[in-house]
């Protein structure tokens, strides 16, 4: 460890034995932090990082804006006949895509954390074991909400009008964020298995990219070859996109929503304990 | 909780990584309220031992009780009693000093106002009040270490693991950390101190285990260890540093293995017999080596390590590390 050059002069310090002893003697041990409180504290840690480096929100804002503009104006006329009609189809789809892409970064963040000594301290604390992971995903959920909100607001500016109004849009966003929370456990597992943040990023997108494109996010699957169409129909991302469109329009089918929630729950049930186990041993 | 007078009782701890036995049967007995030094070169198994005792990794064999609790079966109780200052600074570089300490206070169960007040108190005590609002990545090495130690006592631990607390620090920062450690000891905290600096163990520890290749090869007080390799050492300082290789050869022939000191003109060698020392000095003079001064005194832990292992404790440039302990993490 080498001291990095600092622009500030180091304040003179002579260890004040009396002050150090006072500091050591003055705390009775408080009761153990609850699981919820520990997780929320780790969520707060995530928020503080955003506060110190707000640029990291650019990822979750600029990219979705580019997607909306590009797909609407570049492909809209060709795919749906008019940009307006395509916007109605694509906006909930892009909402799904952008938020799911953001989940890969949760895995990258876990991997980056592991390279730092602070993880050893967290792991030696008497806290609920999954708290650091749950907390960091709770913090990431805030990013998902930011990304989703940017898309919806931009859509409205471009002329998108969800049939079910604000309530529909909020419901769709909520469903996407819940699914993203479940999916992000897959990427935290990946984040603990792979060696570098870059490897996590590459592997993550190698998985999420084809899954997203082989869904009904961009095009109506009716035009696809039969085998592909069959896959697109069972792809959970298609079902999520369909449910989001439904919620936005007020025509959602309960079955679709139930499937989305079930998949999110299943991913969490399988991958959250796996992640926690790997984190403990990392 | 059984109230044993021992803070740490470890028996036969083993941890392997692949073919390598990083820790190969370590026994430790550390009294409550003492500073116990675990001394050894890079890769000797110090960090792996600490990580097992702090419940970060499970031993492959052997067992240990820390503050009366089994490190495997009662890991949570162990965690509630200890704190760890790791080899890499165990603080979050992307947060400020104040945020780091507040975060830990919250995680340890303090309410928000209490956590904030505690952070302020510690920042003051450790001379970091002025830097409280700065990101830790802009801290100097010494400030980072102090924050690291402050982070370990947000809630006063019964036992503190300090893994190479002064590695990479300049002498001034090292002294500051030592003062803090002494203050903690005065307050009754038990400390397990891993270090590759012999002077550090000599300065701070009541008892020392010398560890090499994952085994404890010697144990005792600093005084006992020094006595075990002979009562004294001959220290020689040369007028011309470039004559050191020649001096090393002569002293090696007369007295045995020679320690090259950090000062490029200085060297020392175990020597308990004043007459033989005198002969060696005369031999040096005869061979044309110019001596600035010499003394016959108590051997330092450097000589102890050399006598125990047949090689110097400090890493020799060009000699590859045998075990990279960190590879497993």
Write up this protein.
- The complex is a heterodimer of chains A (about 280) and B (about 325).
- Chain A is mainly α and about 280 residues long.
- Chain A has one domain (about 35-280).
- Chain A has 11 helices and no strands.
- Chain A is elongated.
- With about 325 residues, chain B is of the alpha/beta class.
- Chain B has 2 domains: about 5-95 and about 135-220, P-loop containing nucleotide triphosphate hydrolases (Rossmann fold, 3-Layer(aba) Sandwich), CATH 3.40.50; about 230-300, 2-Layer Sandwich (Alpha-Beta Plaits), CATH 3.30.70.
- In chain B, about 35% of the residues lie in helices and about 25% in strands.
- Chain B contains 11 helices and 14 strands.
- Chain B has helices at about 45-55, 75-80, 95-105, 110-125, 140-150, 170-185, 200-205, 220-230, 245-255, 275-285, 300-310, and strands at about 5-15, 20-30, 35-40, 60-65, 70, 80-85, 160-165, 190-195, 205-210, 215-220, 235-240, 260, 265-270, 290-295.
- In chain B, the strands form 3 sheets. In chain B, strands 6-7-8-3-9-10 form a 6-stranded mixed beta sheet, sandwiched between helices. A 4-stranded antiparallel beta sheet of chain B has the order 2-1-4-5, covered by helices on one side. Chain B has a 4-stranded antiparallel beta sheet with strand order 12-13-11-14, with helices on both faces.
- In chain B, strand 4 (about 60-65) and strand 5 form a beta hairpin.
- In chain B, helix 3 crosses helix 4 and helix 5 runs parallel beside helix 6.
């Amino acid at each position: 460890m080498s001291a990095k050059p600092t622009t500030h002069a180091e304040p003179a310090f002579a260890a004040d034995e009396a002050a150090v002893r006072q500091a050591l003697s003055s705390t009775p041990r408080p009761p153990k932090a609850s699981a919820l409180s520990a997780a929320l504290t780790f969520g707060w840690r995530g928020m503080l990082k955003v506060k110190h480096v707000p640029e990291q929100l650019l990822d979750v804002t600029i990219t979705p804006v580019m997607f909306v503009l590009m797909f609407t104006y570049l492909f809209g006329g060709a795919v749906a006949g008019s940009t307006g009609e395509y916007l109605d189809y694509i906006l909930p789809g892009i909402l799904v895509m952008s938020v799911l892409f953001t989940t890969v970064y949760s895995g990258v963040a876990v991997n980056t954390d592991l390279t730092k000594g602070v993880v050893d301290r967290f792991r030696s604390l008497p806290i609920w074991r999954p708290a650091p992971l749950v907390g960091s995903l709770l913090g990431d959920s805030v990013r998902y909400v930011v990304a989703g909100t940017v898309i919806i607001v931009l859509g409205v500016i471009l002329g998108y009008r969800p049939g079910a109004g604000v309530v529909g849009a909020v419901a769709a966003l909520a469903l996407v964020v819940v699914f993203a929370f479940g999916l992000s456990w897959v990427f935290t597992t990946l984040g603990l298995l792979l060696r570098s943040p870059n490897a996590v990023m590459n592997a993550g997108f190698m998985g999420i990219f084809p899954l997203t494109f082989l869904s009904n996010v961009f095009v109506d699957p009716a035009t696809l070859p039969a085998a592909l169409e069959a896959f697109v129909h069972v792809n959970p991302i298609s079902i999520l996109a369909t449910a989001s469109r439904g919620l936005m329009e007020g025509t959602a089918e309960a079955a679709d929503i139930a499937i989305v929630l079930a998949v999110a729950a299943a991913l969490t049930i399988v991958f959250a304990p796996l992640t926690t186990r790997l984190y403990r041993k990392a | 909780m059984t109230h044993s007078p021992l803070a740490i009782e470890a028996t036969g701890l083993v941890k392997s990584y692949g073919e390598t036995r990083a820790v190969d049967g370590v026994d430790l007995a550390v009294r409550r309220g003492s500073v116990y030094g675990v001394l050894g070169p890079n890769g000797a198994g110090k960090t792996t031992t600490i990580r097992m005792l702090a419940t970060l990794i499970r031993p492959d064999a052997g067992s240990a009780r820390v503050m009366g609790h089994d490190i495997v079966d009662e890991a949570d109780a162990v965690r509630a009693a200890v704190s760890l200052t790791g080899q890499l600074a165990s603080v979050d570089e992307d947060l400020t000093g104040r945020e780091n300490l507040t975060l830990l206070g919250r995680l340890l169960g303090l309410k928000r106002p209490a956590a904030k007040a505690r952070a302020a108190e510690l920042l003051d005590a450790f001379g970091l009040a002025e830097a409280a609002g700065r990101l830790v990545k802009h801290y100097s090495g010494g400030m980072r270490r102090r924050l690291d130690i402050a982070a370990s006592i947000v809630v006063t631990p019964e036992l503190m693991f300090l893994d190479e607390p002064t590695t990479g620090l300049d002498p001034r920062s090292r002294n500051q950390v030592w003062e803090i450690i002494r203050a903690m000891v005065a307050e009754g905290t038990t400390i397990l101190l891993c270090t590759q600096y012999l002077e550090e163990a000599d300065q701070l520890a009541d008892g020392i285990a010398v560890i090499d290749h994952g085994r404890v090869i010697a144990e005792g007080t600093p005084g006992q260890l020094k006595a075990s390799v002979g009562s004294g050492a001959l220290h020689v300082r040369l007028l011309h540093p470039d004559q050191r290789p020649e001096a090393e050869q002569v002293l090696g022939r007369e007295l045995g293995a020679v320690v090259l000191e950090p000062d490029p003109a200085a060297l020392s060698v175990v020597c308990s017999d004043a007459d033989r020392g005198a002969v060696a000095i005369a031999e040096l003079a005869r061979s044309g080596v110019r001596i600035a001064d010499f003394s016959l005194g108590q051997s330092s832990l450097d000589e102890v390590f050399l006598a125990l292992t047949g090689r110097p404790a400090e890493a020799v440039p060009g000699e590859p590390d045998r075990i990279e302990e960190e590879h497993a993490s």
